[in-house]
Amino acid sequence: MNTATACLPCFKKMIRREARLACPGDEPLQARIVESWERCLSELDLRVPPPVIARHLVDTVAAVSGSRADHYAEDKRQANDAVLRLLPGLRTRIMAEQDTLGDPLALALELSVIGNYIDRGVELDVDWEAELADVARTLSPDVLTRFKAHARSGARVVVLGDNAGEIALDTLLVEVLLRRGCEVVYAVRSRPILNDAIMADAAYVGMTRLCQVVESGVDTPGTVLDRCAPEFRQRLDQADVILSKGQGNYESLQGELAGAYCAFKVKCQRLVAETGLGLGDSAFIVTTTPPVRPDKGVQP
């Protein structure tokens, strides 16, 4: 997906928030950061996915402020802790689903998608804990059926992680996939970007004790393929199933990599139009690539 003009208001909110985090209390410096970003934005190629633009935004903040600290480190710890406190009860519900011949994979996916609310790039004012307590079964049944057929015993599954907090809920999903006999690899970002999960978060929530965790090589809040490490691209090519978590991963893969299962919360009006779902709905979508026409090549 390219970056549409509809994305620009979100970046305006983001730059102001990032400026406040980088230099709290220094309003003149915050203003310089915003001004520098506005100049930078006018020169950027918007044909790239929104996560690439977000990387430029974060780099602008660092360059002007002189701070390359992980400004979300404490926020991520709090999010991980908040979810970890809920995991025992949620795990019990999933096991009960399995014991009663229900659908533990569907429930684990629903819970995991609710965790995608914990997003500092695009935020909605929601009570995600209340939604976890009373989870609705809203994911596309057709896509669920297709996913279950692919996530069979022996299948090589690569899960593209997204945010801190959300990664703790993803441990429940990985546990279910492992019980199905899948070989699971979980991918995190290679450097701090917003509140996206990195290797430290995977260790903190116990993901590294469940399955192999790897860094994708990307430094963007989405798995932008041409920014992935070569060995990770090879891993994607060899996977039987790619499960992509989060809106940023969907924005990066849609139109670029066909057949990936994308699970996320719809958090902006552009994605409402793109998916046909409502704001705050849970999406479970299979990515496609543009058709190739012999006379025109790949459509933009």
From TrEMBL:
Pfam families: ARMT1-like_dom (PF01937). It comes from the Bacteria. This is Damage-control phosphatase ARMT1-like metal-binding domain-containing protein. The lineage of its organism: Bacteria, Pseudomonadati, Thermodesulfobacteriota, Desulfovibrionia, Desulfovibrionales. Residues 3-281 form the Damage-control phosphatase ARMT1-like metal-binding domain.
